[in-house]
Write a structure and sequence with these properties.
Chain lengths: ~160, ~270
Amino acid sequence: MGVFSTIIIFVAAYLLQTTFAGYIAIFGIKPDLILAALICFGAFHGKEKGALMAVVMGIVVDLLFGKIFGVNTLMYLYIVVAASVIFEYLFEHNVLTVGTVTFVLSLAGGVIYSLILVLSGQSFGLLFIVKMVAPYALYTAVAAAVIHPVLARIYRRYEIA
Amino acid sequence: MWNFIKKKFIPILIVFSVAIFVAMGISGATKENGKASLPSDAIGIVLSPVQGAFSWVIGNFVGIGEYVYDMSTSVEENKILKNQIIQLEKMARDREEYKNENDRLRSLLDFKEKEQNYPTIGAEVIAKEPGNWFQIFTINRGTMDGLEQGCAVLDSQGLIGYIFDIGTTWAKVATIIDMDTNVGALLTKTGEQVVVEGDMELSREGLCKMVYIPKNANIMIGDPVETSGLGGVYPKGLFIGRIKEINTQQGDLYKEVVVEPAADFQRIREVLVI
């Protein structure tokens, strides 16, 4: 799998997400660089390895930032598995398919997440969910479309994937 | 190993999901003490120096960009600031007069002012919550530096939040704009007790709301709000911000008030912990 390159990719994604993403927020909304990196990773390596990395990154985020352990782990896991399965059916993945799949799945994930928050007692309207989740999904899809060719290049150069 | 995982992927996924749901339930039930779990603390100890260094590099990189931008707008800003200095000098003179008058009146009433010097520890922000839902960040100080859960966090502008989870070398701070945060506050002008709380929608703009304001309350836009000291988390008298918006709907018993915190939550880098 190229353990060293995988560690570098996800440590970089984590550090950029927790330190840099706030600076590129648009109207207070940040892209999820970790999720974008995970989806791209799943596209290149398949659902099993994608799921493994999703669990590792989800646990790290949950341990360090989560208010309730497990929410991010499950969210990352299901999104990455779903994305990897779609790429397996498509037989190929490129900037366009990765961007589209990331948009659809992060939109679904964001809606589920916000419904969990509503069920746990938070009150915000449906319009707000749309206003919040749609730009987040779009921004994350753009991030995935940027990360995918970078990973492709790294993997081609070092013949990893 | 991989062959086994590939063959039994769906059952493994189901078992793992159930395990995480159980962990979620346990975590939700035992989260009250505010002390980080052992794995959480261990990862935090390893990652916090790396995050600190990375955050420093990113902060300086962004700082250079901001400096270049600031230079291009500095002439106009200079004019505005000079005008503000004149106004502030006048306000300082007025304040001095009020202070003298206040001292005289206090001594007449034989009223001893309580000293409000709290010990503080400086800390740096090393990471911010990766998602968009919660307004949380991590600082590079923990129990090793004498901090504990519930300590108030502020910057030079005003109140920022409180420590809700703490490890050996790091602490997680929930800001006052986070949707789960409530602050006992009072209106400096009228002395009325209120509650300032985070709101998911307002937090996008760095704002929060003030609740339980009676419809007939005498409040105006621009009124200052400070901590009341009630609730035991925040000491009394910490500046929170100013009233930005007052909405009164017909039929409602209370006013909806939006508060603009003094702290700029997008650009917090250094904080003080009380």
